[in-house]
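Hi R.,

Here's the chain you asked about this morning:
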Amino acid sequence: MKRYLFTNCTIVQGELFLIGALGGLLAKVNLENGNMSNYEMQKGFVQEKNVVLIDYMENYQDYIYALDSKGVNLVIIELKNRECRYVSLNCAFRSFINFVSFERYGTDYYIFPKYENKLLIYHTSNEKLQEISGYLEDVNEIQCACRVKEDVWILPKASDVMVCYKLSTGEKKGYKLNRVLQDCVHSVFHEGYIYILNMFGVVYRWDIEKTKLLEIADLNINRDENESWSKVIYAGNRLIFLPAYGNDIKILDLYSGKINVYESYPEDFTYQSTWLKYYGYCEDENNYYFAACSGNYMLKIDKQTGKFAWMKPTIEDSIVSKRMESVKDKIYYEGIYETADLLNAISKNLCQPDNKFIGQKIYRWMME
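And the predicted structure, written out as tokens:
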């Protein structure tokens, strides 16, 4: 097996935990040597036979909390006893990508669905789920959201307003923009600014103190879905942009304003062509770690310097055998297929009625 695809991850005591795209199997990666091993669950885990996407994945007090992208469940994994349970969320408005933010405040997790104008709060202290309907005024869909200290800044769909939601009090305040923002997919905060990425490569900067919006860069000349973008992070006085279907990672130097194309990939680096190239990531004090949604390497980016490092996981045989159990009704001759081939075959099967790849459908759903 040459790759193990997953859409999100979280760091627990120096190890990277993930839920695999095929079967939803829990695994962990030793970040020192790259060894990937199966994390066997003892109770409650339900192995999936279809593709499993995770929108967000966090950990707190020996538990992992993961938002199933289908919007059905909050997956809770107790690491000590290796037990798993599922909390029904009733957020399956679309087939995939039903959440825009997942934030812990104190002992509570705030879940921001993309659709239906509701807020969910999971109280870890009593394991209860609270739902607040209609918490935003005249909003039915959210483009993206950004955590800033004790606030979450929310950008509604096709809107000229940013909403600041205070986690401490539940208070909300809207701020007028100087234009309508559309097709925005991700945002990141750094030193007083929220940087907002449009799927076609338009980059905005929201000054929180001055409440002013500026367009600061355009990564694409042509508005082409095949060159669409997924994520933006700040590192080493640069904004680093990760593609959805585009071919390149691009880097904006905030001092000079110059945009460069990243070119230093490993010699044997490849993407699985029918899937989003980058989606979820996790971080520790020093680095960002991007999930291997499509590539045969994991990407690590140093927060202080912006330096890239590529890690090719060494996948243990236990993961291979467990994964094949999850797809045995769909794929045969396991010795022939690489993981990318398996995911490619399943994607085509799932989307055969309209002959489109599932990865492309997911990204379109997110932007509809």
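The CA atoms of residues 264 and 308 lie 9 Å apart.

Let me know if you need anything else.
M.
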